[in-house]
Amino acid sequence: MADPRDKILRREANKVRRRLTAIQRDTDKEIRRLLKKALEQINRDLALAPDPKSWQAFHLDNLKKNVTRALETMERAANSKLGTAAGQSWQAGIDLVDKPIEAAGGPRFRLDGLLGEIDTRQLRAMRSFMTDRMSDISTSVANRINSELGLVMIGAKTQHQAAEAIGGLIDGGRARATTIIRTELGRAFSVASQERYEQAAAKLPGLKKQWRRSGKVHSRPQHDAIDGQVRAVDEPFTLGDGVSLMFPRDPRAPASETINCGCESLPFMESWESPT
């Protein structure tokens, strides 16, 4: 007969899972707003520029400086938001283990009273990585926009054509940023969960982890195929082609299996033995 606590655990785990989705969505919305703001500023500067036929070198230099300034402002604000969101995702990853088990098992299963803090060095490393990725986006988009401005100066493009191209470049940056947000915030969540699983396993003999698919329309078939797979906390999940992942978005797994992955590793209690 199924233990009624299992149903409570699954329900509470899905609540925490939805928290991650909300963090990712909120962060993506803010980065999109910042990029839109940068585009509006660049377009204003371009519209106020003199007729390209009368452009001098200093006109082009001023426009380029304004482009760089607008994108650097975006980058600083984006990195601040990403840093905060990474911390929120990390805490949600810990809560994915703690909260469902306590809700289902009661006060005796309150893990934050039994376990210490997990090491945050990986969180700091992931924050640094995200900052570097946003810097790459800012720099590459700025360079390509400035190339468009150069084409206007030599008469190869009109200001209108350049403005359209710049909009496309910003859209490309936005798409890259969305991928970073979904993947890296999800990775922070999963790394923290795995760390917590390993801590908790010593106290909860019945604790395991279960792979749950994302439910996306265009999900990876091989990820869907292992939906429900249960493993000991220190053992990897195994895909049909033999690829192993300790958790979704495992950085040691091939990028093809981790980018934009929305799957999760949820707590699974094989037995409800009292914490030791």
Please provide a brief summary of the model.
This protein has helices at residues 4-48, 57-105, 121-153, 159-201, 221-225, and strands spanning 207-212, 230-232, 237-238, 244-245, 264-269. The protein is mainly alpha-helical and 276 residues long. The chain has one domain: Four Helix Bundle (Hemerythrin (Met), subunit A).
Overview of this protein structure:
63% of the residues lie in helices and 7% in strands. With 276 residues, it is mainly α. The strands form 2 sheets. It has a 3-stranded antiparallel sheet with strand order 2-1-5. A two-stranded antiparallel sheet has the order 3-4. The model has no long low-confidence stretch (mean pLDDT 94). It has one domain (4-204): Four Helix Bundle (Hemerythrin (Met), subunit A).
